[in-house]
Amino acid sequence: SEDIPINQISSISFKRKRNYFFAISGLGFGLILLGATLLNLRGFGGLELLITLAISTIGILAGIANWIGHHLIVINISGKDRKPIKVEMSKTKEGYEFVKMVKKILFE
After folding, report:
1. What is the DSSP code string of 28-79?
2. Nearest Cα to 74, choosing from 6, 12, 9, 2?
3. Which of 3, 15, 24, 57, by CA, is between 20 and 30 Å from 30?
4. How far is CA 42 from each of CA 37, 38, 46, 49, 53, rounded to the nearest angstrom?
5. What single DSSP character describes residue 92?
6. 1-42 per-position pLDDT tens digit
């Protein structure tokens, strides 16, 4: 931790960093695998069906998490940016709504 006097802070910004490649590829992979699984339900046994559904769910959730992105708080002191402070996804409005939706689906 570091104490910075308030009078030295010139600006504070909130930045979102997204990884578009992993977001699009994760969503695409998960949706394609889910679609292929649903089109060929009779070709799978019970264990294979569970494994493919689990992998497609992980791909879809990874894509959504990468689309939401990582949130950073950047403090600028005298024209120089300090090391960004990472914000937990569930502490943001979009992240809170996403976590709330996932908890509702899984536990209700």
Report:
1. HHHHHHHHHHHHTGGGS-HHHHHHHHHHHHHHHHHHHHHHH-EEEEEEEETT
2. 12
3. 15
4. 9, 9, 10, 10, 14
5. S
6. 566 666 777 777 777 778 889 889 999 999 999 888 888 877
